[in-house]
Target: CbtB domain-containing protein
Amino acid sequence: MALSAAPAPSADATSAITPISLKAIAPWALFFGILMLVLLYFVGSEQGATSVFSGEDVHEWLHDGRHLLGFPCH
Model:
């Protein structure tokens, strides 16, 4: 039977893991939260009553994503 090349974890290796503080995660969570809201706006509402861009370009680029997420567009 072959031996594994990876060393077995020791008790010291598991105690070296430190948790990430909320203060360190908060800016990233805010950034990704705003990014998701912008993406949700463009997929769900752009080319509707609150259109930011004129024309049908954004609608056509995001057409399949609208149907995938359940937004009506026809």
User: Anything to note?
Assistant: The first helix runs from residue 11 to 15. The helical segments are 11-15, 22-44, 57-61, 63-69. The mean pLDDT is 79.
